[in-house]
Amino acid sequence: MSTLAHDFRVARRQLTKSPLFTTIVVATLALAIGLNTAVFSALDALLLRPLPGVRDPQQIVQLYRSWPGGINYGSSSIPHYNDLHDRTADAYSGVALWAFTPLNISATGTPHRVMGSLASANFFSTLGVVPAKGRFFVPAEDTGRLAHRVTVLSWSSWQTLFGGDENIIGKHAVVNGGDYEIVGVAPRDFKGIMPIITPALWVPLTQLEEARPGSGFQWTARGNNSFSVIARLKPGVTVEQARGRMDALVTQLRAEHPDDYKQSGISVIPQSEAGIHPMIKGAEVGLSAAVMAVVAILLLVACLNVANLFLARARDRAREMAVRLSIGATRRSLIRQLLIESLAFAAVSALVGLGIAQWAITVANRITLPIDFDFSAGLTLSPTVLAFTVVVSVVAALLFGIAPALQATNPSLVPALKGEAPAGESRSRVRNGLIVAQMALSIVLLVSAGLFLRNLKAASAADKGFNSANLLVADMDPGMQGYTRARAEAFYRDLTARLTSHPGVQAVGYAQWLPLSANESDTAPEIPGYTPGPNENMGVQYGIVDPGYFPAMGIPVTAGRAFQVSDDSASQRVMVVNQEFVRKYLGGHDALSTTIRVGGKEYAIVGVVPTGKYFRLGEPPTPFMYFAQAQRFDAGLSVVIRTTVPPETLMPALRQDVAALDPTLPLANVKTMDQFLGFALLPARLSGVVLGVFGMLGLVLAAIGVYGVMAYSVAQRTREIGIRMAIGAAASDVVGLVMKQGLRLVTIGAAIGLVAAFGASRALASVLYGGGQNDVATFVTVPLVLLATAMLATWAPARRAAATDPLAALRQE
To answer: How far out from the chain centre does Cα 93 lie?
Structure first.
């Protein structure tokens, strides 16, 4: 009986015995294993990896407000946080508050807009983070107004904005026009609570009004929810126990603040289950599962290809197996040896695959988003990813090795010892079954890739409710520089006058935020004649815009009028709503005769515009309200410039005009609207391109598989073909015979694959736009492409068979 050491020596010899065979097997498997590893590394970074740089991250939970109507992961207010912090010491050893907030910073005289973060003084200590330099915030910086302002830099901003200055502690930076002392630098591996977006700097909560001018009311506004809360479980406290404690706290808060907590609750979510944000966790999981399923199918197709190659090699080793069986070797020992050989091939393929995965990860980490803050995909070959690669390699070895091993160790001894080793029906059935399975999986893979490519086209062509052509956009916030309302309004008037003086500028408008920018604000209007259903969420999204916004965005007014300059703070409050708002809440009544109460104030509807896309491309028709900028003033605005010339040509003029008015005011996210929409299209674009590449690889593997099987079949039938030709069969008859055999297998596989692909499309429905899973063109085109490819792959062996010399074939033993 062979020992394991002997089996490994034999496996090593098999790797080097036939370099061409080894190269083909390793290349096929390495590509599939490498792509599986790269995709899993993305899944690991998004969903599985604990917070980097955080002590005992499994003890960290996130605390969200919840309301009826499906709002389970809402933000929190400062008074709500204070209750959590002061009254839950029996469940948590620390409760901290944080929130992203854009900040203006001037590090070396050049203004920059960065994504910063407000944080309570115990934010870093709750997470168990140790500073790389200096210190973090101290308790005194959590109460009252400070004598001087302080900030903590992220590692990356220390490097990029301050050149990695070793003496940075104690130095100062200008943030939002004020002088801030740099007291600390976060460690390199700490990325914050949402690792794909690392804040450039943190400022203590006591500097709320400096970070968000005009937000002082948030200290006492219990219903103003714009912060996130994290907590660390006390030792021995479980998540379920913490949830029970939160339920008890909610009962107390309902008694103390009935208007704010009548239907509200608190959701406790372990950080490990939150993903980027629990609100989009379902979409993350759905898209990740879809992509992982596709690369798994690619791996199966590769394994079927390799299994066919191993079956072909088994015929050449039939005599070896027969001799070993005849002298006493057991079939079990031979199967073990062959599986060890398969593991050896898989191990080498895994090493090469890791190189492919590392290359793919490097490319992915270089992806930049159309946003002006520090984004990092953070993909790595982590221990979890490496363990996944090992498991995938072992599974692949079993998948492609078991059938050939069983066939190779079951030869007909006498013919095999004589060197004849004819292929039996059983072996042919196995090969045919493999090609049918390969075709079926290829159909599923190609249909999935086709659906995602069509999905990308549908997302790009989706009606967004505005005309994105010839638009230039940018963000600015003079309020961060300490501008009063009067000064900010004068700034925007002067900027508009400068911009409209440039040739090619057709219209200029401003908005609090642009559609599809991942920003969202909602409020609950009181609508006369409308009775909310049980547990209906009455939060309606809204935006604040100026009179130039609708013309600049190309949004038509279908009824009434748009905002006018006369709609100022001294006039009647007015609003514009979209058609979905009219349909849902006004029931077809005349919207222009309706007055709605919002935030205790009455607003008259003066106009109706078409329903568009506001938060994401895949959202259903959503009610929306617009308020006049002059009546709900906000200094931080996005400018929208409609042009008659290529919009990018006006970028220098925009920068010069802003600098001429205020050289210290940073301009952010300067881009064309098409570039801006790249963020909203990113999921569809990435999935479409990546899966399109996977689909093409699957098509190539399928073609190689068909060619290999048919070429092997022709080689086995050489004598039969010779006899047919000797008794008068024409070359065309032989070609037809071989192609009929190959296409029969392909057709069976395609039929099975279409049924499976239809089921797969149902599963993909949640991540496709507008019912793309029913795309008839994809279900028709993919089988035709695969059949055409299979015909080409079958034609070459068929032509070789037709060229067989009958006499040479008849002499073949």
So the answer is: 33
Give residue-wise pLDDT tens across range 597-627. Answer: 998 899 999 999 999 988 877 778 899 999 9
Per-residue model confidence (pLDDT) at position 576: 96
Q: For residues 719 and 565, which has the higher predicted lDDT (pLDDT)?
A: 565
Query: Which residues are CB-neighbours of 285 under 8 A, at least 6 positions away?
Result: 47, 275
Cα 709 to the center of its chain, rounded Å = 38
763 burial (CB, 10 Å; 0-12 / 13-18 / 19+) is: middle
Distance, in Å, from the CA atom of 711 to the CA atom of 800, rounded to the nearest integer, reads 9
State how far the Cα of 496 lies from the Cα of 344, in Å rounded to an integer.
69
Tell me which DSSP letter residue 288 carries: H
pTM of the model: 0.70
pLDDT band at 328 (very low <50, low <70, confident <90, very high): low
Half-sphere exposure for 379 (CA within 13 Å, toward CB): 19
**C-alpha dist (Å) from residue 680 to 46, 618, 665, 673, 675:** 18, 10, 27, 11, 10
Query: Distances in Å between the alpha carbon of 696 and those of 454, 689, 742?
Result: 15, 11, 21
Most confident of 242-251, 376-385, 759-768: 242-251
Structure tokens at 22: 């080894």
Q: By the 8 A CB rule, do 312 and 18 touch?
A: no
Q: Using CA atoms, how far apart are residues 95 and 80, in angstroms rounded to an integer?
A: 12
**Residues in contact with 606: Cβ distance below 8 Å, sequence separation at least 6, in sequence order:** 560, 561, 563, 574, 575, 576, 592
Q: Please determine, for residue 738, whether its predicted confidence score (pLDDT) is greater than 80.
A: no
Query: Rounded mean pLDDT of 471-487?
Result: 90
Mean pLDDT of 566-589: 90
What's the pLDDT tens digit per position in 121-158? 999 999 999 999 999 998 877 765 555 789 999 998 89
What are 43's two structure tokens? 């899944």
Cα torsion through 641, 642, 648, 654, rounded to 10: -30
Provide the 10 A C-beta neighbour count for residue 335: 17
pLDDT of 423 above 50:
no
Determine the Cα–Cα distance for residues 112 and 468; give it in Å rounded to an integer: 27
Q: Tens digits of per-residue pLDDT, 83-106?
A: 999 999 999 999 999 998 888 888
Q: Is 797:713 a contact under the CB 8 Å cutoff? A: yes
Q: H or E element: which one contains 71?
A: strand 71-74
- Strands (E) located in 214-295: 228-233, 265-270
The band of 321, judged by pLDDT with boundaries at 50, 70 and 90, is low
Q: Under the phi-then-psi rule, with left for phi > 0, alpha for psi from -120 to 50, and beta for the rest, what region is 271?
A: alpha
Sequence-distant contacts of 718-721: CB under 8 A, at least 24 apart: 718/804, 718/809, 718/812, 719/809, 719/810, 719/812, 721/801, 721/804, 721/809
Q: What is the secondary structure of 690-732 as a DSSP string?
A: HHHHHHHHHHHHHHHHHHHHHHHHHHHTHHHHHHHHHTT--HH
Do 627 and 553 touch, CB atoms closer than 8 A? no
Q: Say if CB 41 and CB 379 are below 8 A apart.
A: yes
Q: Chain-wide mean pLDDT for the chain?
A: 82
- Give me the residue label for tokens 């090609």: 435
Between 782 and 7, whose confidence is greater?
Answer: 782
User: Can you tell me the distance from the alpha carbon of 126 to that of 554, in angstroms, rounded to the nearest whole number?
Assistant: 48
What one-letter code names the amino acid at 731? A
∠ CA 498-500-503, nearest 5°, is 105
Residue whose C-alpha is closest to residue 599's, from 578, 566, 625, 563 = 625
3-state secondary structure (DSSP) of residue 180: strand
Contact assessment for residue 148 and residue 210, using Cβ atoms and an 8 Å cutoff:
no
Residues 6+ apart with CB under 8 A from 616: 516, 680
Between residues 112 and 682, the one the model is more confident about: 112
Residue 411: pLDDT over 80? no
The three-state secondary structure class of 624 is strand
